[in-house]
TrEMBL record:
InterPro entries per record: PMDh-L-like_dom
Protein's name according to its UniProt entry: Putative aconitase subunit 1
Pfam families: AcnX
Domain Phosphomevalonate dehydratase large subunit-like: residue ranges: 6-413
Length: 425
């Protein structure tokens, strides 16, 4: 009998000692070891309807992952929940050279079809359930307030915790699946009431609505893995409507990638801040004031790692994390207006808007889809980050308004307004 410091229920002990087979026992042991590393004293059941996995790409180098997946499948240890997964890495609609495609298809993601077949056997929600914004209404994987999750994907976790009021730690790939297979996760960190209290007060004192990705970057780099309580942003967001949720999607992704934020509270907006107000604050919290000058300082601090810093952009990616339906609609109008003012009919830089397959399907049902197509903008379900991992993509001058993409790749960050000017003029 295996003994651990963690207090286990009779069912958990039985699983650990082989009641559901050797493979399931190893899965339970993995989750216990993971929890004890972070001081967890018990395991709690997952309560969400669906899970979300970060590992969606069939990299040739991930042989041990495929072997592990096969062992789970052969033992019947599939996910106790259906799950969504992060975006696919490839899409023929996205511009790429002949040599880039050889690298993508033969040296990088050659196991994509094989891996997607494994995901299907393990519990993938549906064939097109690949997106980093699984919580969109069109996708259907939005947990309820208080739900315990076993998700990974930093931008999805921070959104679920902050905007939806669910409870999830920043899990890694494979751990997300393990929790869902066994049905339990260790109780620590952002699952606990104390772990959800704020270490920082962030005071927003800008003269106009701050750029979501830029503000998120500033917050993430300052607080790192701590929990921030943001005051003054409700002035610009108003209420938690579709526009505010889209803003917080992009803001949260930047806090999670430029720092390691897994939860933030926005006074008067996010559910726990509305319910508990400043009772969420820990004693003597740190204070960080963000004004126009601070945002400019953060923006100016970003390195440009292009070989030729004056190079003309060859590609623009929008949608990391994936764009919402209202973003697609709003950006259609922005691009049309920008082109009209510039006297151009189509975008002057190849531009890709990425969104969840289900969101793209809904968008195609609107008159905006045909209008956007006329501008030359390409729609895709791809993960821009996976595209940029190609060494031949890294050497390209690519622009984006995503601070996540800027952080993890060679893409160069510009604000939305600057992006619009570049692609239309």
């Amino acid at each position: 009998m295996i003994k651990y410091k963690m207090k286990l229920s009779k069912e958990q002990e039985a699983i650990l000692n082989g009641s559901k087979g050797e493979v399931m026992a190893k899965v339970m042991e993995t989750m216990i070891r993971y929890g004890e590393l972070f001081g967890a004293d018990r395991m709690v059941p997952i309560t969400s309807e669906y899970n979300h996995l970060v590992t969606s790409f069939g990299l040739k180098a991930l042989g041990p992952v495929y072997d592990l997946m096969e062992k789970l499948i052969d033992a019947g240890c599939v996910s106790s929940q259906k799950f969504t997964a992060d975006p696919r890495p490839l899409d023929r609609n996205v511009p790429s050279s002949f040599i880039q495609n050889i690298v993508f298809n033969h040296f990088m993601y050659s196991k994509q079809d094989f891996y997607e077949d494994q995901l299907g056997k393990l519990g993938l929600l549906e064939r097109d359930a690949f997106t980093c914004t699984c919580y969109m209404d069109e996708v259907g994987n939005a947990p309820k307030p208080g739900d315990i999750l076993s998700w990974s994907e930093s931008s999805a976790v921070v959104y679920a915790n902050s905007v939806l009021g669910a409870r999830c730690n920043r899990n890694s790939g494979i751990i997300d699946l393990m929790g869902s297979v066994v049905g339990y996760v260790p109780y620590f960190g952002l699952l606990t009431d104390e772990g959800r209290r704020a270490d920082w007060i962030i005071e927003i004192k800008t003269t106009e609505k701050p750029e979501a990705q830029l503000l998120g970057s500033a917050v993430g780099m300052k607080v790192m893995e701590d929990v921030p309580y943001i005051v003054g942003l409700d002035k610009w967001l108003g209420e938690l409507d579709e526009d505010a949720r889209t803003y917080l999607k992009d803001f949260g992704a930047a806090t999670a990638s430029n720092g390691a934020v897994g939860l933030y509270h926005v006074e008067g907006i996010t559910p726990e801040a509305v319910q508990q107000k400043k009772a969420l604050l820990k004693e003597n919290p740190n204070v960080y004031v963000i004004d126009d000058a601070e945002l400019k300082r953060v923006y100016d601090s970003y390195p440009v790692i292009w070989k030729n810093k004056e190079a003309k952009p060859k590609l623009c990616f929008m949608g990391c994390p994936h764009m919402s339906l209202n973003q697609l609609v709003n950006w259609t109008e922005k691009v049309e207006r920008g082109l009209k003012e510039a006297g151009n009919e189509k975008v002057v830089i190849p531009t890709v808007f990425t969104a969840a397959p289900a969101v793209l399907k809904k968008f195609e049902e609107t008159p905006y889809a045909a209008r956007l197509k006329k501008t030359g903008v390409i729609l895709s379900y791809i993960c821009p980050l996976m595209y940029m991992n190609n060494p031949l993509s890294t050497s390209m001058p690519v622009i984006t308004s995503s601070n996540k993409l800027r952080t993890y790749t060679s893409a160069r960050y510009y604000t939305d307004e600057e992006i619009l000017e570049q692609i239309t003029r």
